[in-house]
Specification:
This protein has 475 residues and is α/β, with parallel strands linked by helices. It contains 14 helices and 20 strands. The strands form five sheets. Strands 7-6-16-17-18-15-19 form a seven-stranded mixed β-sheet. It is globular, with a radius of gyration of 23 Å. It binds flavin-adenine dinucleotide (FAD). Flavin-adenine dinucleotide binds next to α2, β19 and α13.
């Protein structure tokens, strides 16, 4: 259907959007661009941004909810980001990521840079690679088996299994392999061997080998700017949706306000949505609590003094070993010098850590701050405690939507019932598809939902993750 503007679009009725994270804002941005004014975003928090928000602690350090690097698969998203902060609002970085293992840094992708390992570990990795079964994965295969087939037992034991357990908070056998697409570099034995023999670094793999970051205000600045463009009259903050009556098409907020709608997009987590809909949707109620997720503990450590030379160009580092609770540390002061107080003095720098927790991986929340600082000492990222001038923490109870073995089956029960009830559910936890849950994907899920709802254009990102991700590199 061709694009219709103004009056014709307005006749589609009132659109309510729940949540002003990247997905909800993507939908609102698209409506605004279409000249469609009859819509309202309801957001529980006092600010837009969702998981892509940023905070300034009481010592003046800026923090994201985990190091957000922005890269994109879509021209449309790039244009929106350009509009949000302007050409001068961004800093551009080349990724330098490393793995800390066996008391040394190995460049990422680990599997392509085995020459950095001690000889016995490199030999173990190569032996596993030579002996791997290298079969084509079946569509229902688990990630653990995929690792065996693609990388062999050596790499699995020393890096892939322990590291992925730390990230996902579930054993690799509990994960479906289908999310790996562009996220895990596969292994070419000839290339790996050549890199060892010729002493070559091989670091340019992947869609995020360059990325951009806001000059000021952390990742949250992007989404505050997008919200401002959409306009205060379209975004109602501090408004938690308590009930969606999908038969009467009425939303009730926690404060008792009732709002009618013709179309509704929810970006709240599916397990929360299930408790909100009335009359109950039996398959949604039964299946959504079974979807697995992990909590993300984000700890920001503000530091004084000079940053060690060895960290000067490292954007982030991965930690597969058990000498620290975290799986990733971001040198957040490198993303923007303005992420620390008094940037002109060079007195401060900052590290941000991420630790996962789930029903299958316990974390002692009481001691996590102390365990994290000890982990930074154990791994040599900080020298002593006197460097620490600020401690900040945040728990995202919905952190990572786990691509578990049973996920697709559960979504297969949930999606048709929501569709029948006329409820669109999109976004990181609204669609529960990790493989399309970054900022660009989420924003475009919102955009595409609008295109489908008011223009009848089929959605791609939420339905065909591989197709959406294949757009990377040939936009
Ligand atoms: C640790 C971590 C690291 C990440 N790193 C990156 C990265 O490097 N690059 C990248 O691109 N992305 C990254 N992301 C992902 C990014 O944060 C998400 O893509 C994005 O925030 C998802 O947007 P969303 O709108 O779908 O969901 P959310 O951001 O969760 O937004 C949902 C919104 O709905 C609101 N809401 C929920 N329930 C209700 C209710 N009942 N009533 C009203 N409002 C409600 C919430 O308050 C929230 O604002 C990371 C995420 C995490 C957790």
């Amino acid at each position: 259907m061709s694009l219709r503007k103004g009056e014709a679009l307005t006749q589609q009725g009132r659109i309510l959007i729940i949540g002003a994270g990247p997905t909800g804002l993507g939908a609102a941005y698209r409506l605004k661009k279409l000249g469609y004014e009859n819509f309202l975003v309801l957001e529980a928090n006092s600010e837009a941004g969702g998981l892509a928000s940023s905070y300034v602690d009481d010592k003046g350090f800026t923090w994201d909810i985990g190091g957000h690097v922005q890269f994109s698969h879509y021209d449309y998203f790039d244009k929106a980001m350009g509009e949000a902060l302007g050409k001068d609002g961004w800093l551009h970085h080349e990724r330098e990521s490393w793995v800390w293992i066996a008391d040394r840094f190995v460049p990422y992708p680990f599997q392509n840079n085995l020459r950095y390992l001690p000889n016995d570990l490199a030999a173990k990795a190569i032996k596993g690679l030579v002996n791997r079964p290298a079969r084509v994965p079946s569509p229902t295969q688990d990630f653990g088996t995929w690792i065996d087939q693609m990388m062999g037992t050596g790499l699995k034991e020393m890096f892939m299994a322990p590291y992925n357990y730390k990230v996902w908070a579930f054993p690799v056998e509990d994960l479906w392999y289908g999310w790996v697409g562009e996220r895990v570099a596969t292994v070419d034995l000839a290339r790996v061997t050549e890199n060892i023999l010729l002493g070559k670094d091989d670091v340019n793999w992947g869609p995020n080998n360059t990325f951009q970051f806001p000059k000021y205000g952390g990742t949250g600045a992007i989404w505050r700017a997008v919200a401002k463009q959409i306009g205060e009259n379209h975004i109602q903050l501090n408004t938690r949706v308590a009930e969606i009556d999908w038969q009467k098409k009425i939303v009730t907020t926690k404060d008792g306000e009732k709002l009618e709608y013709d179309h509704i997009l929810s970006t709240m987590p599916l397990d929360s949505l299930a408790k909100t809909v009335t009359p109950e949707l039996p398959a949604v109620s039964e299946a959504s609590p079974q979807l697995k997720r992990s909590h993300s503990h984000i700890i920001g450590i503000g530091l004084q003094g000079e940053m060690p030379e060895k960290l000067a160009k490292k954007c982030w580092m991965y930690f597969p070993e058990d000498n620290c609770p975290f799986y990733r540390v971001t040198v957040f002061s490198l993303y923007s010098p303005n992420n620390v107080p008094e940037p002109e003095t060079g007195k401060y720098w900052s590290l941000m850590t991420e630790t996962s927790e789930s029903s299958a991986k316990h974390v002692n929340r009481e001691t996590l701050m102390e365990d994290t600082i000890q982990g930074l000492l154990n791994t040599g990222l900080i020298r002593d405690r006197s460097q620490v001038v600020s401690k900040w923490s945040y728990v995202a109870e919905h952190g990572y939507p786990t691509p578990s073995m049973e996920r697709n089956n559960l979504l297969g029960k949930i999606e048709p019932e929501l569709k029948k009830a006329g409820i669109g559910s999109r976004g990181r936890f609204g669609a529960w598809k990790y493989e399309v849950s970054n900022q660009d994907h989420s924003f475009m899920q919102g955009v595409e939902w609008v295109n489908a709802t008011v223009l009848d254009v089929p959605e791609v990102t939420v339905r065909f993750a591989d197709t959406a991700n294949a757009m990377w590199g040939r936009k």
